[in-house]
Amino acid sequence: MTARSLADALRAASDDALAELLGARPELLSPVPSDLGQLAARATGAPSVARALDRLDRWTLNVLEAACIAADRTPGEPISYADLRGMLAAADEPDVRRAVDRLLTLALLWGDDDGLNVVIGAREVVGTQPAGLGPPLQVLLGAVSPWVMLAMLDDLDLPAAANTGEAIDHLVAYVNDSDRLDAELATAPREALALLEKLAWGPPSGGVERADREVRTATASTPVEWLLARALLVASDPRTVALPREVGLHLRRGQAFAHPQPTAPAVVVAGVRDRVDPTAGAQAFSFVRATEELLEAWGLDSPPLLKAGGLGVRELRRAAALLDVEEWETALVIETAYVAGLLGPSGEIDDGWLPTPAYDLWRSTPPEERWATLASAWLRTTRSAGLVGSRDDRDRVAATLGPDLDRTLAPEVRGGVLTVLADAPPGAALDAAEIEAVLHWTRPRRPAGLRRALVEWTLREAERLGVAGQGALSGPGRALLRGEADDAADALAPLLPDPLDHVLLQADLTAVAPGPLVSDLAQALALMADIESTGGATVYRFTESSVRRALDAGRSADDLHSLLAKHSTTQVPQPLTYLVDDMARRHGRIRVGAAASYIRCDDESVLSELLVDKRAAELRLRRLAPTVLIAQASGELVLERMRSFGLAPAAESADGAVLVRRPDSRRTQSRQRPPRLATELAAPSAKLRAAAVRALRAGDRATHAPRGRTVAGMAGAGVLPRTAAAQTLALLQAALEHGAAVWIGYVDQHGSVTERVVDPIRLEGGYLTGYDHRYEEVRTFAVHRITGVATLEAGDSEFGDVSENGNFDLDPRTTEVRGPA
After folding, report:
1. Cis before 31 (ω within 30)
2. Range 543-547, long-range pairs (CB < 8 A, 24+ positions)
3. How many CB atoms lie under 10 A from the CB of residue 21?
4. What predicted TM-score, i.e. pTM, was given to this entire model?
């Protein structure tokens, strides 16, 4: 039997078809509709339809537009697949069938080949100009003066009309008469025909002064007037004329599109590269190294956080100078570290940007895993570093790490660009315009301007990250696109330069690392020396402050000597040995602790010098004992000032032990990664879709059940289910897995005990979500309030045998809980 509505079509559909619909349009499940009628109403609403249309490719959208055109020709009546196929005759039949099946799956069309119906919301969202055609003549004539219409009837030898509606009917019948239109066009001036041909394929309107004036066929002096007098053009407002849809279709010979494009445009390969992976490996290593260098520097000297949020332009330029790269690359490094959770605001009064504790864990992993973390975060984030430096509609500059860099379209475009590259032959480099054309066909309703910019940014950022190399997708990039971060790291590992375990020590107190160092050596060397320059080789410089930094961190002089001797390919220079010994000898002679703070030293003369030193006046020192001074300043300030005097104090704990720490490197508190904005709902799991289908079926049965029949439940039989907590959970889990309805006893917030028939949908977090047949809606039940669970009798109609009074007949002989049937 032919369905009379979308709701009827959904009731006749299989459970698999309903589950597929819910998977393709997840917004229909938020929240779960009470029955299939409510699902149909939600599916036909304009907001939901607009979201579904946003996911359609150009061809499927074109077929839907053609269906809207065909439906408008016979309002209130279904269209046939044959009629729709006739409007798309230039395309192959399998392509039309594929698009129609897709639209049926999405419930944008419903019915069968003999009677296809377009949902109301689709016609509203598609608009008044589907396929570039103008509005129907009946709509256009609504804005025309009755006197003008009467003149048209007279000039065209059409029957007289008693009222406006009858006049419109006569004119609509006139433009639907193909033979009459052909005869009129055969006598049309050449300029009028040229104008019609221009308007036929869109846009179907144009500007004309005094377009709504009365024009007669006898006095028409211009091509536009000739067309207006014969209703081949109609004034839509005083300054605009439009081509009626019927005339446009006649000029198109009944075709909705001149050149339909059922498949995405083919891309032109700009060239094939033979060193894609090696180039990508070098870029990936460089990006990881730049991230480490920047965060290490910011751990020592954090840039301030702007009041409006983000990083200042001056700080961005300073970071670019540090990394020796362009500002857009620096912004990419900073943003990627931020979205990967390695960087965040300090949260202090003098708020600044600091590495997070996650950075230290990240730093301890192999380079390929560090890269996979960064690349995965970049691929998924909605933040777009390419916007840095641009101005918004209020002429405000977008700042790095600022709040205005999120674009929900960004991850979709990144994935789309990489997918197009992955579909091309290995090593193929593609032009940005070719890729953008494919993405435009894939999602034509997306904003074109932003998408074009995102494509260009994605290509250059993928190159910088090592996801691509020489314009082609790399092997690690392909694994990353598949969502296999571990495989991406494994694919990158052979492409990275082998880490070195040695450096070259020089007499000028520098060390040269001719390549990347193993992690332990790199961290140890960064602790006791400052990075002076980077590039093909990294130059470290040893200074008094850098060696003191290592001693402050708990390293002894013997540790430093051993490290240098073990990892140097040359003999340790004597000046470096002297520097380490001299700093170690002075280190810890003076100790600073908390009182406000105190200074302790076994050498009384050193403390006496401090008391008379004018530079220490701000510390307000006072002798407490021959070997102890107290200060009216914090321990951190005392340490800082004494180091500026050329001394080498050590921090001391309350029990007198030397504190092992790195006072020069700071970390922010543990923070979650920045939120990822999303307008698209995640696709529901197969289990959730199946449960929702069961609830919809059950709700539909309850909605259409004869009035007066109620679910009385176990109270009518004097039985209330009671089970232990563990058994309650087990039975609910079993019912959820088998799709079985259950009886539950439930204590509400007022302490009243009721019994319910429930179709379980979800069980998590201590709550059961299910369709409640008593109230005919999806409800949430706290598991700790459920007194017990009992299954329904096997073979009992839908949920049990219904007695003459409308109650469910239960077996009162036992209260034993049985498993699901």
Report:
1. yes
2. 543/509, 544/579, 544/583, 545/643, 547/579, 547/580, 547/583
3. 20
4. 0.72
